[in-house]
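Q&A log
Question type: sequence-to-structure
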Amino acid sequence: MLLDSCIGKSVRKTLATAGYDVIWSGDWDEDPGDEEILAQAFEESRILVTLDKDFGELAIVKGSPHKGILRLVDLNSEQQSQVGLTVLSLYGDELSTGAIITANSTRVRIRPPD
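Response status: OK
Response body:
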C-alpha cells in the first residue's frame, strides 16, 4: 500500500501494525507529483490511499494504470485509520483488482475496474 502524503502519518503505523506493507510518500525527499505517485504505486502493485480526488481523475479520465485507489473523505487522522482498516478488510479484494473506492465514516462508494 502506498499512502499519499496528505494521509496522516499515524495511519501508516496503524496499517503496518495490522499487517499491511505500507509506504508513506511523506517520507520521500520531495513530492514527485500525482502522476508519478500513481505510477509508482502501479509499478509496485500497491493500492494507493489518498484524500485527493485528482488520482481518480487520472485513472478515469486519463486512463492511468493503477492497482486500486482508496480515497478517504472528510476524516481526521484517527478516522482515516479506522475507516481505512474497515474498507481494506471488507473490500480489499475489490481494491486489489483495480477498483476505486471513496469512503467516509458513513458511506462507501465502489467503482469497479473497467
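Response note: The longest strand covers residues 69-72.
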